[in-house]
Amino acid sequence: MLTLRSIASIRPGTIHWDNGKGSVTGFGARRQKGQAVTYCVKYRTVDGRQRWLTIGRHGAPWTPDMARAEARRVLVEVAKGNDPAGSKQEARKAATVAELCNDYFEAAEAGRILTRRKQSKRSSTLATDKSRIECHIKPLLGHLKVASVTRVDIERFRDAVTDGVTASSFARATGG
User: Fold this and answer.
1) Contacts of 45 (CB under 8 A, 6+ apart)
2) What is the DSSP track for 27-88?
3) What is the pLDDT of residues 81-130, one digit of tens each?
4) What are the backbone dihedrals phi and psi of residue 83, each rounded to the nearest 5 degrees, phi first?
5) How far apart, in whole angstroms, are the C-alpha atoms of residue 92 and residue 66?
6) What mean pLDDT is reported for the chain?
7) How many whole angstroms separate alpha carbon 67 and alpha carbon 1?
8) Cis ω for the linkage preceding 61 (within 30 of 0)
9) Residue 45 near residue 83 (C-beta atoms within 8 A)
10) Could you report the per-residue pLDDT of 14-38, keeping only the tens digit for each?
11) Backbone angles phi, psi at 108, to 5 degrees
12) How far from 55 is each of 74, 84, 93, 133, 140, CA to CA, in Å?
């Protein structure tokens, strides 16, 4: 079983797996090159893919017992058919607002974005759209993942554009 003593004895480049009474299958502590030890859980998804999920770094707040409890929780999610590591990976790869804007321009310039009259947008309209996106949307919201944009983000954006705030002062004001 992983204990504080066994964590302290982990050598660089090794993994100590939880074993013994009360252990959790697939739960371990890993030390790579440096002094940091991280807790991880290894599991297989429903479709048979092997995944590793890092629980956290040893020390405040993670103790072996807390990390073991989290590993149990993760394995319950896996048993329900979820893939926590896969979800984390997808979230990292998710499109940003800036990427979505670029996709919009690509589609609009190719004539795939239609107006209410079912006609492609005129070049003057596209120029206006591009100006608004480049001056306001991309600088103020472009770094955010599309799925993480909240109502509060939109309200701050609206107020910033109304007040004539630049991208740098908006970022300072919102901590982003």
Assistant:
1) 51, 78, 83, 86
2) EEEEE-SSS-EEEEEEEE-TTS-EEEEEEEEBBTTB-HHHHHHHHHHHHHHHHTT--HHHHH
3) 999 999 999 888 999 999 999 999 999 989 998 889 998 889 999 999 99
4) -130, 85
5) 26
6) 90
7) 12
8) yes
9) yes
10) 999 999 898 999 999 999 999 999 9
11) -65, -45
12) 9, 11, 20, 39, 32
- Model's pTM, two decimal places? 0.67
Task: Give the separation between CA 120 and CA 129, rounded to whole angstroms.
Answer: 14
Q: How far apart are CA 152 and CA 159, in angstroms?
A: 10
Q: How far is CA 105 from CA 18, 44, 121, in A?
A: 52, 40, 11
Amino acid at 3: T
